[in-house]
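User: I'm new to structure prediction. If I give you an amino acid sequence, what do you actually give back? Let's try with this one:
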Amino acid sequence: MVKDWSEWYQEIIQKAGLAEHSPVRGCMTIKPYGWAIWELMRDRLDAAFKATGHQNAYFPLFIPLSFLAKEAQHVEGFAQECAVVTHYRIKTDPETRAVTPDPEAELEEPLVVRPTSETIIWSTFREWIQSYRDLPLLINQWANVVRWEKRPRLFLRTTEFLWQEGHTAHATAEEALEEARRMLDIYAEFAEQVLAIPVIKGRKTPSERFAGAVETFTIETLLVDGKALQAGTSHFLGQNFAKAFDVKYLTAENKLEYVWATSWGVSTRLIGALILSHGDEKGLILPPQVAPIQVVIIPVWKSTEEQTQTTQKAHELARKLTDLGVRVKVDTDPHHRPGWKYNEWELRGVPVRMVVGPRDLAAATVEVAFRHNGEKRSVSEGEALAEIKKWLDTIQRTLYARAKARIEHQTHWVEDYARMREILEESGGFVVAHWDGTAETEAAIKAETGATIRCIPLDWKEEPGKCIYTGRPSAGRVLFAKAY
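Assistant: Good question. You get back a string of structure tokens that encode the predicted 3D arrangement of the chain. For your 484 residues, that looks like this:
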């Protein structure tokens, strides 16, 4: 059993070859194996976006400082995280070789390295939207953003991270709200069906909303260490940015109206969620749908002749599995013994391992081992080919069910504030409790426990009661937790 999940997390990222710290504090280098996981996530999400009518575009990395100031809540929300470019040239001292910004190359207006793209995109939308015929405008971009992070952690919180951000414009508030909820559903479906991560859909309290949003919807999950993670958000922006950038459209009745807006995004923090949702003391456990390698085949031998025979059979089996649409790797590395290879691929979370040895050749069998439960058995080659898709589907469903059972075990319905504090201090998890709806109570609980209201669940029935902190009337329960 893992005793220190924080230490385990850092070690697994390094040993599994997912990412490493870069020379720039708070930034990371994503290594090929980590990038392959992100590509699989990105491709599935991109297909889902396009299936709902969205198109990809790209907008500048640099945003004029004055743009952020146009929306008051927005600039206030990001003021502490912005990286700002003030010069376009550097100067080198020939004697000391010291490098400094050239004072003669100061920008007329500082540029912010995008922390999010609402402002630069809405200044562009003003040119793209003229009449109701241009609506709805459904745009997504895949990009990097920079938010100066005080306590960085690979994937979960980094100064620079990768994400997608959707930005849409609509003729009515109802259409925009429908869009925001639709994208939340897409995120929830992706998390649960592709990543095998159970989530709770909800809306944020006013103090936890995205800066500049009228409403923020979220999917929240709970990780193995008892901390919550905001896995994705979708925002109803009302007309705030349309008014800030004067984005109007001509209605069918020849009237000028401001458009209604949404924005929504998920990021590389989902890789962190993946690691801390399914991993164990041996390392990663990857759901088959986002495993870069779904099956690793390891030929074993004692003699040169056996090496040739088992390697040939392993490649033959790999070709057949590839033809079935399975992502396969044959590990023929002669420098490591089979036991080392078994441990290495378990560490990297490959769902299925197949071993081909001399006895397997003689019997036309293959030894199959499953990462998620450690089960091993010998099957015929024909059975392995016939059953592999079913095995992968079963692993996917099992990981989801296991994570769901874990989260249910870590979820506590609490009536007493002292008990709430005890849970949060000892084990963490979700605390489901009544809240009186005030920002003052929310802030007091956060100050005393470190826990925030993760969301007001969307699908739960209203259950009037008394606030766990003040005893005042409460319209319903909310989800508290300490979070990343």
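You can read the tokens as a compact description of the fold. Here is one thing that stands out. The chain has three domains: 5-278, 293-393, 411-481.
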